[in-house]
């Protein structure tokens, strides 16, 4: 149920709207009607988890870097492409599009500044320097 963010407004999230609709519908239903209390709680939890995944995806995307080149561990890396990756958080799985950089020397592995800046993966914490070029 996790959806990609198309807006920076967390209340524009499809998961937020689904939660809002669910709560409003539940308020209108008669207690003890067609939905048991347990079913209501499970439905509510499912929608809260989806909203958590959406908000986490939006927050994680803020760690991405968009530059022509970055410096990592004293080596220059050039922008290669944007790539969508699926991450997993407490609320579930969610996709995030992030930038990938490759060594300028053409030797070695690519890096993902989003993951480095967020403290993910096998990279120890090293500074990441962002280079921009004015035309």
Describe the structure.
With 135 residues, this protein is of the alpha+beta class. Helices cover 34% and strands 26% of the residues. The chain is built from three helices and four strands; from the N terminus they run H-H-E-E-E-H-E. It has helices spanning 14-28, 37-61, 113-118; strands at residues 69-72, 75-89, 92-103, 128-131. Strands 3-2-1-4 form a four-stranded antiparallel β-sheet. The relative contact order is 0.17.
Instruction: Tell me, rounded to a whole number, the average pLDDT.
Output: 84
Assign the structural class, choosing from mainly alpha, mainly beta, alpha/beta, alpha+beta, or little secondary structure: alpha+beta
What about the largest sheet?
A: 4 strands, antiparallel
Order of helices and strands: HHEEEHE
Strand order of the largest sheet: 3-2-1-4
Count every helix, treating DSSP H or I runs of 4 or more residues as helices. Answer: 3
Radius of gyration: 20 Å
Name the poorly predicted regions. 1-6
* Rough outline: elongated
The share of residues in extended strands comes to 25-35%
Give the beta-strand count. Answer: 4
Report the helical percentage.
25-40%
Separation of the first and last Cα atoms: 43 Å
